[in-house]
Amino acid sequence: MPSRRLRWSAIGLFAVIAAAALSGCASSPSSQAAGYAESMGGTNRALATLPGRPACFWLRNFDGSWIVLNDSELIVYAPLQSRPYLIKLFEPVIDLKFHERLGFEDTAHTGMICNDSMDDLIVPHWQPHRVPITAVHALTKPQADRLLAENHLKVPARAKPARGDQAKSKGAANR
Q1: Which residue from 40, 37, 76 is spatially nearest to 165, judged by alpha carbons?
Q2: Which range scores top for mean pLDDT: 18-32, 83-97, 160-174?
C-alpha cells in the first residue's frame, strides 16, 4: 500500500512538473510572436479607419524627414516631401516628438517598410529600441494636411521638413 501511495504521489508530482513546463513554453519567443500577432488582429478595426491606403516605401528614399502627430503616429516623407506616409506604432513612445533621430528596420530585409509586415521603428535612447509598426499608409497631400491640422500642427514653411524637424504648434511662439 505505501508503494502505491508513493507511485501515485510521483505521478502527481510529474503531472505538476509537466504542466509547469508546458506553461513555461507559453512564453517562448514563438508564442510571444503569436500573441503579438493575435493582439494585432484586434486592432484591425482601428487601423481600418486610418486615412490613406496601405502601402510601402523604400528605405533608400527615406532621408530622415518626419513629423510626429502624437506618441503613436507620425508622418514620414519618402522621398522628400513629395510622398507622405502615415506610420502607426503598436505602442506609444512617450515624448516621441523630442527624439532627434529615428530609423527603421525592415524585418524581411526587402529594403522596404510595409503595411502588415511587422517592421520596426528604431528609437535611440528608448526602451525598447525597436517599436513595432502596425500600419503604413500612403497619404495624399490633403490627407496629410488634415492630419496635421487635427493635431494642431502646420507644415514648416520650407520646401520639406528638415531631418527630424517637428512642425510647430499653431499656438507656439515663433522663435
Answers
A1: 76
A2: 83-97
Closest C-alpha among 103, 68, 106, 65 to residue 82:
65
Owning domain of residue 69: 44-150
Domain count, the chain: 2
Q: State the virtual CA torsion across 160, 147, 64, 131 in degrees, nearest 10.
A: 180
At 86, phi and psi to the nearest 5? -85, 125
- Do 167 and 152 touch, CB atoms closer than 8 A? no
Q: Which residue has the higher pLDDT, 18 or 63?
A: 63
Q: Collapse the DSSP code of 20 into the 3-class scheme (helix H, G, I; strand E, B; otherwise coil) and give the result.
A: helix
pTM above 0.85, yes or no: no
